[in-house]
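Page 47, continued from p. 46.
Same chain as before, 327 aa.
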Amino acid sequence: MKAMTPPRFKVERGVPLSGLSTFGIGGPARYLARCRTVSDLRRALDFAQREGLHQNVFVIGKGSNVLFDDRGYDGLVIASELDFCDEISVASTSSNDEEELSLRAGSGYAFNTLGQRLSTAGWGGLEFAAGIPGTVGGAVFMNAGANGFETCEVLACAEYMTSEGELKSLDFREGSCGDSGGSGFAYRTSPFQKMGGDLLAVVSATFSVRSSPGAKARAREYMVRRGQTQPLRDRSAGCVFRNPVGEGMPSAGALIDGAGLKGHSVGTASVSPLHANYLVCRETGAHSARDMRALIEEVRARVREHAGVELTTELKIVPFQAGEDGG
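Result:
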């Protein structure tokens, strides 16, 4: 049998970003590079440098946490498709006769698939990932979480590429997850967010999980609950607003619901009647970033007026050009 040759790296022009976003929103990218290897990432950086676009590079995974502009993006969009997933080691732990699995996944590997794959095989720790519609890279960058669990709790280390093309890594095995743990992780926060323009992309992540006979059942329970409480069939980017931090603070969804906004619409954008922290695209009409941004601002204003709380987005609003207001 003839070995398959990996697709050759190329840069495309004018690709509609609506097809790369779970919102289904976005005009054309000036350039798009689909990167399947670390070498591809470096080639994309070289291209951006030659074209004078090194300040106009944006990296996506599955586009599940972004809102692109209706005009598109006047720069280079890099789609991370590093979708490998390799078992590194299995070792016995010192207690409870458990085994520990170390597994390394590329930044473009589907986080949902990783959670399902591990839980089905009886490994616990990433059951919450089942149903999260993003990639490993996005989950690490945002410290994605659900059902009271966060990515950093099982993250051993991560490789990343700097904006200069240098490959580096961070080890998190010594630091604990959380605001006071020293690892740089907190609610929807990671040390990678603090790198700013020095970071190009997360490249891979190594997770450490433990054997757990009930993992498959827990993942299934989370999936059922997600289907009952979240508008999974609608075009959305997941939860739009971060939950306010503080003891006794209501969730963002509860605050939006309390302001009477469930089902409220601005043009083609609506607050989901099922879960108020999901802003969704209506089935009819051309989906519009302008409408979605207007709805985001109206929700902020109504919650501020009703509850005195300033909501902030966990959604990344991407401007057409660097320097424009991205929200």
